[in-house]
Design brief:
The protein is about 40% helix and about 20% strand. It has an eight-stranded mixed sheet with strand order 6-5-9-3-2-12-15-14, with no helix packed on it. The structure holds phenylalanine (PHE) and zinc ion. Zinc ion binds next to helix 3.
Length: about 900
C-alpha cells in the first residue's frame, strides 16, 4: 500500500468549532514570478477564556522569512513549522500575528494558490489553496475581513485586482505600483482572489432592483475584447433573474470576471472577482459553437448565483460542499430553462446526470451527496455533489411547490446570511418555512447509490380502475451494504387511447406527484372508462432508474402524444436503446428499423411545427456510454458497431427526409433560439446522411466538405469537421491541416481540434494520440489542452478499451506523468479506470494492472492516491 500519511481520512463527525476567530487579515503581496513575498497580519481572538496550549495555522510550501506576535519578533521556541503548517505555542487570548513568507508562482503548476501563467498572476483558493499563499486557518468557517495590497511592476502588470473595492493606489520605487483592496464582507479564505497582469476590460453597468449601480468588468487579453458580449449579457440576465425569482440583489459596487487559459476547473466564484476558464467567457460566432455559447450562459450564471448560495451563506466544512454546489447548479439549470427551452434544458441535464453521475454512483467511487470522509477534498467536486445534489434540491422544489420552496430559501437567507452553515440548516429552513416534515428526505443526502424503481400497472376494464404499484431498491455501495427506502416523488399522468390525460381524481387533476416513501406501494385510480398508458417520472422527477415495462406500441404511442417533453424523448430513447441492445446481442446480423421506432421517428420528422431543438433531441440516439450502462458487462466493440449500424439504418431509411431537412434548414447565421435549434437539427441531418450506407455516404461527405469550407460560423464548421475526422471511411488529413492553420492562434479552437482527433476511432488511433502529445501545440501545463487529448481519449471507447490493454497502459503512463505537474487534474482524469468492474475479465485485468502501476509511482500525489485506493483497494 501507499505511504499511510497519503490517505489519512478526515471525517465529518470529527468537526470541531474554531478555537480562535480571525476577525481581520491584511495581506501585502509583492508579486514576482520567481519569488513573491507575502506579508500577512492576522487579528486572532480566542473564543473561550480557557488558555490554549497551541494554535495551528495551515501552510503548504511556504518559506517563512519572519514571524512576529504583537509586533515582537517570536523566538524559535515559540512556534514550530512542518509540512502542514505553523504551530504557535501558548497563544494569548487576543493577538496580532504577522508572518512574511516567500512563494514561487511560476513554479506552481498545480494551479492552486498563487500561480503565474500566460503572463498573469492568478489565484485559486478553493478548496485549500490559500494555505499555499500564507499561514492561515484555511477552512470555510473562518470568516474574516480582508484587506489586500498588491505590488507589481507597472509595465507587466498594469492591472491589479482583488476582492471588494479598490480603496487606494500609488507608485512604488523601481517601476512598481500598488493597489489596495478592501472587501467589506467577512469571508472564508477559499473565496479570496487576486489577479495582476496586462489585461483589458469590457465594461458595462447593471442597476439593481433597489436602484444601485454596479460596475461590471470582464478582464481578458486585449485581442479578446470583442469576444465578451455573450458573457456580459449572460451576467446581466443572471443578475436580473436572481432578483425576480429569488429576491436576491448583488451587494458590492463592482463585479469583476477574469478569463484565463490556465485553470483546473470551469470557473470560481471568488467574492466580487470571479476567475474563469476562458472557455466559459470568450465566444464569437467564428470561434465558438452554440453549445459553447450555452455553456457560457450557464457558468456565468452559476458563479453569479454563488454570491448568495455559497458566499453570503457559506459552508461550515467541506462535507457540506453540496449545500452550495447542488443548490447553485439547481439555480443555474432553472435559469437556463427560463432563458431557453425548458424541455430541452431538462433533457440535457438528465443526459449529463446519467452520463457522469449514475456511473459514479454504481462504481467504487460512489459516495453520498454529503460525504462522510475524504482524504483529498479536491476529489469530491464530483457529479454526485453537483448534479445529484441539484436533483435533491429539485425534488424539494417538487415536493414543496414553487411558493413553498421560495418561502424556504427566504427563511434560509434570513437565518444564515453571513454564516457558515450545514446542509441540515438548509433542510431545516425548508421544513420550518413550510411546516413540513423532511426527516425521511434527509436519507437522500446520506445514502449513496441510484435507487431502482419498478412499476407495475393493471387496468381493470370491469371496475374501471387503474392500479399502479411502485417499488424501490438501492444497490449496495462501498461502505453502505444496506440501504433504506427514500421518498421518491414520481410525477404521473395516465394517457388514454385518444392521447389525452385522464382525470386522476374527483378534483379532475390530470397530473400528480406520487411520493413513494416505502419499499412498495400501490395506488388505485378510479373512474377510468378507457385503458390508459402510464407516463411515469415525468420531467424526470427523481434521480432514479425506472423500469416501466411498456410494450413497444405503447412507447411509440407515448413518443407521439405525451405532452411531457422529457418522457416523450425518453420513450424514443427506450425504443432506440432496445434496438441497439438487440444489435449487440446479434453482432453482424443485418438489422432492420423496428416498426415502433420507425413510427416514432417518422412522426417527429414530419412534425415541422415542433421546436427544432426539441426535434433534434427526439431524433438523437442514446450514447455508447448510456447503452453500456444498461449492460451487465459493457461490450465495448459490439455497442460501437450496433450503434453505428442503427445510425446508418436510420440514415438510409429516412434518406429523403434528412436530405430535405438539410436543404430546407440552410440559413444565414443568427443567434436566436430558433436559429440555434435549426442548426442543431440540420447538423443532425447531415450526420445521419454521412452515416447512411456507403454508396450514398460518399456523396454525403462531399456535403460535409462543402459545409466545412463554406460555413459562416463555428457550429456548422465544427459539425462538418467532426463528421469528416471521425467517420471511419473518410480520409481527412487535408482538413485537419487546414483547420489547424486557420485557428492556430485560438487556443479554445485548437482544443477542439485536439479533442476531435483524440476521439476519432481511426485504425491508427493510439499512434495518432501519441503524435498529438508531441505536437508543438500540446502543453502539459495547460489543463484544457491536456483534457482535450487525454480526457477525449477515454471517450474513444474502442481505442481506450482496446482488448489488448494498450489503451489503458498508454493512458496510465500519461497520468503518471501528469501527476507530477497537476495532481488535481491527474486524479480527475484517472477516474474512468475506476470502472474496471464493468468490463470483461481480460479488460478488468488490464485496467487493474494500469491502476497498480500508478499506485507504485514514486511521489504519488494525495489526490491520485485516494482515487486509486478507492478504485482498487487491492493495488499494492
Ligand atoms: N466552486 C467552483 C464552482 O463554481 C468550482 C471550483 C472548485 C473551481 C475548485 C476551482 C476549484 O463550481
Ligand atoms: Zn459552483
Amino acid at each position: 500500500m501507499m505511504a499511510s500519511e497519503n490517505n489519512s481520512l478526515i471525517h465529518r463527525s470529527d468537526y470541531q468549532p474554531l478555537a480562535y476567530l480571525i476577525t481581520d487579515i491584511a495581506l501585502d503581496v509583492r508579486l514576482d514570478p520567481e519569488n513573491t513575498e507575502v506579508t500577512a497580519r492576522l487579528h486572532l481572538q480566542r473564543q473561550s477564556p480557557e488558555p490554549a496550549s497551541a494554535l495551528h495555522l495551515d501552510g503548504e510550501g511556504l518559506e517563512l522569512l519572519e514571524i512576529r506576535r504583537d509586533g515582537q519578533s517570536l523566538p524559535e521556541t515559540g512556534y514550530a513549522v512542518d509540512g502542514s503548517g505553523l504551530t504557535l505555542f501558548q497563544p494569548e487570548q487576543d493577538f496580532v500575528l504577522e508572518t512574511r513568507v516567500r512563494i514561487h508562482p511560476a513554479a506552481n503548476l498545480a494551479l492552486s494558490g498563487l500561480y503565474h501563467a500566460g503572463g498573469h498572476f492568478l489565484t485559486q483558493c478553493e478548496a485549500e489553496g490559500f494555505r499555499r499563499i500564507t499561514y492561515y486557518q484555511d477552512r470555510p468557517d473562518c470568516l474574516a475581513r480582508f484587506t489586500v495590497t498588491l505590488h507589481a511592476p507597472q509595465k507587466t502588470c498594469p492591472v491589479l485586482l482583488a476582492n471588494g473595492n479598490c480603496v487606494a493606489q500609488g507608485n512604488d520605487p523601481q517601476g512598481f505600483h500598488w493597489a489596495r483592496w478592501e472587501d467589506p464582507y467577512p469571508k472564508p479564505s477559499y473565496l479570496f482572489a487576486m489577479v495582476a497582469g496586462d489585461l483589458a476590460a469590457m465594461r458595462d453597468t447593471f442597476t439593481t432592483q433597489s436602484g444601485r449601480q454596479v460596475a461590471l468588468e470582464i478582464y481578458v487579453a486585449e485581442r479578446d475584447l470583442n469576444a465578451c458580449s455573450q458573457a456580459m449579457d449572460s451576467l446581466k440576465r443572471a443578475m436580473r433573474w436572481d432578483e425576480v425569482v429569488y429576491g436576491r440583489e448583488y451587494d458590492l459596487d463592482r463585479y469583476m470576471i477574469v478569463a484565463t487559459d490556465s485553470f483546473n476547473m470551469g470557473a470560481m466564484e471568488n467574492k466580487g472577482l470571479n476567475i474563469f476558464n476562458a472557455k466559459y467567457v470568450l465566444a464569437s460566432p467564428e470561434t465558438a459553437t452554440d453549445t459553447d455559447y450555452q455553456g457560457i450562459e450557464s457558468v456565468i450564471a452559476h458563479e453569479y448565483f454563488h454570491n448568495w448560495t455559497g458566499n453570503r451563506v457559506t459552508l461550515r466544512d467541506w462535507f457540506q460542499l453540496s449545500l452550495k454546489e447542488g443548490l447553485t447548479v439547481f439555480r443555474d439549470q432553472e435559469f437556463s430553462a427560463d432563458m431557453n427551452s425548458r424541455g430541452v434544458q431538462r433533457i440535457g441535464d438528465v443526459r449529463r446526470l446519467r452520463a457522469a453521475q449514475f456511473p459514479e454512483d454504481a462504481g467504487p467511487l460512489a459516495h453520498p451527496v454529503r460525504p462522510d470522509a475524504y482524504s483529498e477534498i479536491n476529489n469530491f467536486y464530483t457529479a454526485t455533489v453537483y448534479e445529484k445534489g441539484a436533483e435533491l434540491v429539485r425534488m424539494l422544489h417538487t415536493l414543496l411547490g414553487k411558493e413553498g420552496f421560495r418561502r424556504g430559501t427566504d427563511l434560509y437567507f434570513e437565518r444564515h446570511d453571513g454564516h457558515a452553515v450545514t446542509i441540515e440548516d438548509f433542510v431545516e429552513a425548508m421544513e420550518d418555512a413550510n411546516h413540513a416534515d423532511l426527516s425521511r428526505f434527509r436519507t437522500w443526502y446520506a445514502q449513496a447509490g441510484t435507487p431502482l424503481v419498478k412499476a407495475h400497472g393493471v387496468y381493470d376494464p370491469k371496475a374501471h380502475t387503474y392500479t399502479l404499484t411502485l417499488s424501490q431498491s438501492t444497490p449496495p455501495t462501498p461502505g453502505q451494504p444496506l440501504k433504506e427506502p427514500v421518498p421518491i416523488p414520481v410525477r404521473v399522468a395516465l394517457i388514454n387511447t385518444q392521447g389525452e390525460k385522464a382525470a386522476l381524481d374527483i378534483s379532475g387533476a390530470r397530473e400528480k406527484v406520487l411520493v413513494l416513501e416505502e419499499a412498495t406501494r400501490t395506488w388505485t385510480f378510479q373512474n377510468m372508462p378507457d385503458p390508459v398508458i402510464p407516463s411515469l417520472l415525468r420531467g424526470f422527477s427523481a434521480p432514479v432508474r425506472l423500469e416501466n415495462p411498456l410494450d413497444d406500441q405503447s412507447r411509440s404511442f407515448l413518443a407521439c402524444v405525451d405532452d411531457d417533453p422529457f418522457n416523450r424523448w425518453e420513450s424514443i430513447q427506450e425504443l432506440a436503446l432496445k434496438s441497439i441492445l438487440a444489435g449487440v446481442q446479434n453482432p453482424g446480423t443485418v438489422q432492420t428499423l423496428p416498426s415502433a421506432l420507425e413510427r416514432a421517428l417518422s412522426a417527429t420528422l414530419q412534425d415541422g411545427a415542433m421546436d427544432p431543438a426539441f426535434r433534434a433531441e427526439l431524433l438523437s440516439l442514446p450514447s455508447e456510454d448510456y447503452v453500456g450502462e444498461q449492460m451487465a458487462v459493457i461490450a465495448v466493440d459490439a455497442i460501437h458497431q450496433a450503434r453505428d449500424a442503427l445510425l446508418s439504418i436510420i440514415g438510409n431509411h429516412f434518406h429523403g427526409e434528412w436530405l430535405n431537412l438539410y436543404h430546407d434548414l440552410a440559413a444565414v447565421y443568427e443567434r436566436d433560439g430558433l436559429s440555434i435549434g435549426r442548426r442543431r437539427l440540420r447538423n443532425m441531418a447531415l450526420s445521419y446522411l454521412v452515416y447512411s450506407d456507403r454508396h450514398r455516404a460518399d456523396d454525403m461527405t462531399l456535403h460535409a466538405r462543402q459545409q466545412y469550407v463554406q460555413a459562416d460560423n463555428m457550429t456548422d464548421r465544427l459539425a462538418a469537421f467532426q463528421l469528416l475526422v471521425q467517420h471511419p471511411l473518410h480520409d481527412a488529413e487535408d482538413i485537419l491541416m487546414d483547420f489547424y492553420q486557420k485557428w492556430q492562434d485560438h487556443p479554445l479552437v485548437i482544443d477542439k481540434w485536439f479533442a476531435i482527433q483524440a476521439m476519432a476511432p481511426r485504425a491508427d488511433a493510439l499512434r495518432h494520440v501519441q503524435y498529438l502529445l508531441v505536437h508543438p501545440a500540446f502543453d502539459w501545463k495547460v489543463p484544457n489542452r491536456v483534457r482535450a487529448v487525454l480526457g477525449a481519449f477515454t471517450m474513444n471507447h474502442t481505442v481506450f478499451h482496446a482488448a489488448d490493454g494498450s489503451g489503458y497502459a498508454f493512458f496510465a503512463e500519461q497520468i503518471r506523468r501528469l501527476d507530477d505537474i497537476n495532481p488535481q487534474t491527474a486524479a480527475r482524469l484517472a477516474t474512468p479506470l475506476s470502472r474496471w468492474q464493468r468490463y470483461d475479465e481480460v479488460r478488468q485485468k488490464a485496467m487493474t494492472q494500469a491502476l497498480q502501476k500508478l499506485a507504485a509511482k514514486p511521489h504519488l500525489s494525495r489526490d491520485l492516491a485516494e482515487v486509486i485506493q478507492r478504485a482498487y483497494p487491492g493495488a499494492a
